Amino acid sequence: MATSSLLPKETIKIFAQAVGVDELADDVAQQLAADVEYRLREITQEAIKFMRHSKREKLTTDDINSALRLRNIELLYGYNSRDPLRFAKVQATRDLFYVEDRELEIETIINECRLPSAPRQVTFKCHWLAIEGVQPDIPQNPPKPANKPGTQDDADAAAGDNAGPGTQSSLTRMTDDAEVKPAVRHVLTKEQQVFFEKICLAVLGADVNAFHAAINSLRTDKGLHQLMPYFCKFITEKVSDCTQKFSLKVLIAMMKMVEALLMNSEVHVDHYVR
After folding, report:
1. Dihedral sign for Cα atoms in the order 34, 36, 38, 40
2. Cα–Cα dist 231/237, whole Å
3. pLDDT tens-digit readout, 134-149
4. What are the pLDDT digits (tens) for 217-258?
């Protein structure tokens, strides 16, 4: 059965010689030419689809590469030149042409291309996120939320509007002299709540091993900053109870807790004591 192909069998033989196959039968070359033509048509049709979906009328090498990638075929290598190809005729031949490549110097390519600017050197800057629970009003920190209608600030403003002139002046003086600090909500995680309860039970309990473990944890742990206000309140309440109903055991336990917290180099107790 004879097969016709736009590719001549001589072209297939040339490619076969390039890969090391010197002797290739004519019928085999003819069959390979038909198969190569089918593969080329298939890739070309897929590339035309990419071109039409891109709203273009000119087929580019990117379309060919997209079609090859769709078929899981190795992509083409080389430059994607936007300049038209210049064909030159081989001397002493009638219909043989080649692509004329001009010699380029590396210095010329470097000078013509636009290199991106060098990135800036990596730097860092420190700023205060919060001072004693109060967030400073600086550009690095997130903006404070606006007051919603019906809040305490609106009620205070309404009360100020209804007051007399004397009350208004006294309120103004008090506002000017007072230092207003926004209330910061202190939220503990589930793990921190469980840890706080375990420490309190161990300090007040009868288990000596648990007591020493709790005191050692207060002396060495680094993440006690969030729990310090609660520990201070707990110690203050227990010491106050001891003054009313004398309990030497509880008082000694509270002294051990204070000693452990003072010996912890990662916790600054003076920030939480008034």
Report:
1. negative
2. 10
3. 777 887 777 777 665 5
4. 888 888 788 888 888 888 888 888 887 777 788 888 888 888
pTM score: 0.34
Tell me which residue has tokens 């033989």. 13
Residue 270, token pair as written in the block: 């003076």
Encode the chain in three state secondary structure. CCCCCCCCHHHHHHHHHHCCCCCCCHHHHHHHHHHHHHHHHHHHHHHHHHHHHCCCCCCCHHHHHHHHHHCCCCCCCCCCCCCCCCEEECCCCCCCEEECCCCCCHHHHHHHCCCCCCCCCCCCCCCCCCECCECCCCCCCCCCCCCCCCCHHHHHHHHHHHCCHHHHHHHHHHHHHCCCCCCCCCCCCHHHHHHHHHHHHHHHCCCHHHHHHHHHHHHHCCCCCCCHHHHHHHHHHHHHHHHHCCCHHHHHHHHHHHHHHHHCCCCCHHHCCC
